[in-house]
Write a structure and sequence with these properties.
Layout: E1 7-9, H1 34-50, H2 56-87, H3 99-131, E2 134-137, H4 144-158, E3 165-167, E4 182-188, E5 198-203, E6 211-213, E7 222-226, H5 227-234, E8 243-254, H6 268-279, E9 284-290, H7 295-305, E10 312-315, H8 325-330, H9 355-361, E11 364-368, H10 374-385, E12 389-396, H11 404-414, E13 418-423, H12 431-443, E14 447-449, E15 452-453, E16 456-457, E17 460-468, E18 471-479, E19 491-498, H13 501-515, E20 527-529, H14 533-549, E21 555-560, H15 566-577, E22 581-586, E23 603-608, E24 613-614, E25 617-621, E26 628-632, H16 638-642, E27 644-650, H17 654-670, E28 675-678, E29 684-685, H18 698-710
Parallel strand pairs: 1-15, 2-7, 9-10, 12-13, 13-14, 16-27, 19-24, 21-22, 22-23
Antiparallel strand pairs: 3-5, 4-5, 4-8, 6-7, 8-9, 11-19, 12-17, 17-18, 18-19, 20-27, 21-25, 23-28, 25-26, 26-27, 28-29
Length: 718
Amino acid sequence: MTRGKKVSKLPAHPGKSIVKSTASTGARYAYANREQSWLAFNRRVLEQAKAATNPLLERVKFLAIVSSNLDEFFEIRVAGLIQQVESGAGELSLDGLTPREQLKRVHRAANLLVEEQYHCWKDQLVPLLAKEGIVFRSGPQLTASERTWVQRYFEAQVLPVLTPLAIDQSHPFPQIGNKTLNVLVSLDNPDTPELDKMMVILPVPRILPRIVQIEPGPDGPQRYIFLSEIIKLCAFTLFPGYQINSAHAFRVTRNSDLYIDEEESENLLKKIEEELRNLRRGAAVRLEIEAGVAEELITTLCGYIGLSLDYAFRLQGPLNLLRLTSLYDLIDRPDLKYPPFTPADSPALRGAASIFDVMRDRDILLHHPYDSFTPVVDFVEQAARDPEVFAIKQTLYRTSGDSPVVRALMDASINGKQVTALVELKARFDEANNIHWARQLEEAGVHVVYGLVGHKTHCKCSLVVRREGGALKRYVHLGTGNYNPKTARLYTDLSFFTCREYLTAEVAQLFNTLTGFGRTPEFKHMLVAPFNMHSRIQELIAGEAANAAAGKPARIIAKMNKLVDQVTIDNLYAASQAGVKVDLIVRATCCLFAGVKGLSDNIRLRNLVGRFLEHARILYFENGGKPLIFCGSADWMPRNFFRRVELAFPIEDPELRRRIIEEILPTELRDNEDAQELQPDSTYVPPARAAGEPAFSAQRYFMAAARIRAVPPVEAVV
């Protein structure tokens, strides 16, 4: 068994393409601010929570997603800006702002977003839930019988695990964990009224449910109360003889970015474990506290945690609305949720005994979650059992808690096959989970490696080597999403299966580069970062501009999560100015301006925010009438081009090309319900509809098409 280790180091890269931008912009007005763009995306998620067309509990879930997104934004992006300000360093943003200027704008925009979020909860969702018999109570709203029940619940379920922590000269300020729930209590001792108010903190264990159903019963409305309300209401139990002046829930968000010097780390796994422990004590970047708390208490609290008052958010409602996701599971009301959807089985694989038999005859393309993710799991599981399979190589970036793919890899190793797993330990917020899987795999005899120094391995690859007729044949699965069956039901992604020799050979070369040594591997068919992806994409964009100038067919369609890379943006501007029609589908952050006269007249940019999270990356280049299509794992960002290992693979099978060119891309460009289009002033508006034009949702279309595919054809009766 090979112990997990760091492998291959690439030459230092400055983070810029060898291909220069061809547009003559260079002006800061040509680029949108990355942080502002991301906040605008999260506002579009909030719009889904406000949308009356969505089922009520789905709207609650969208509101929870807004909170989750904001947490990550402060933990990573805002934390980075604060660090730059404090160090006196930091480059200007693409739009020419200093880190301090960005922080000011971020603070204003985030404040407005949070205000809208809580307005949506209090004034829209809570009343609508009440109409459906789902009632949220605050402490003052409780009836006498409800208050009695809450007091009993507190004494039985909460009080035994609470530990009050006084703050005075003999009690130092406690360590407040990242995003943990706490209650700040202000007390007075009646015997010493001349003394200042005393502060006590009640840390709330994560194990306690944050939403509690009051006296559950079969009849009447379902009544719920937040745990923080229960603790505030019953806090007097903890302080007999004292007068409670106030009690307010609060939470602290801390810098959660890992800082690992891989060059100096002999054991990357242990180093990351150590850093994960340190993150609990990372620098504070945000304080959330319930509105109504005395200003002197906030000032004192910010002083203890080392945070500017500018980053104290006074919330008009319960903290951490992410906890509302539990409500979705607590309440069995199908009428308030999306209709259930079952992914379709692929017709190409229907009835096949072995996925390898099908792959020898044709390439396979699956569109998740509309097509079932089961074949991806089957690919690894069948390889694990197949006596003719000699080796399996697999990348793991994020996977589920009970991963069938990981289990299959362990089974394959136990069955005597050579199994190599490249586990990305630095997958943000999944570090602890991936450390667990790395150790489990090693114990089963799997060769576990951690990739290239200084680069996250983000590509999605699985390679199987099988003996057939005395020779060895390779089969691969390549994807745009993670090997995670749970998120595969929530994210839109593509899976590609092939045994084309020229593609499988390049996948094998990529694995050899990741597990061994390979400074300058060559890839002729695939786009692979950090090797050829950035330069090749610039060449393809420039090629479309040249074709347009020569009067040849020219078109670019690109779908991704984020578009930030300046060189790529400049070249898209140049293509637009040359007459290339450019359609971009960008889900979140975008630093490009669309539809600006003289700059990007021919660029149209839209995003889709709907039931499923749009996650697939698809690239289309007209190529003078011989279209090139790539699908892959990379966004158009410097980190993806230069600091990650990414893969985009060509689609060359005529039927699969037709599906992308004639169905997937046109359908998403036709959407006028879940889509919003970027305007020259950086705002997003719904696409214009012609008079009488009906609403059209791409995601609903794909679900309907999947239901049709799920029905096997009826054999003709003779």
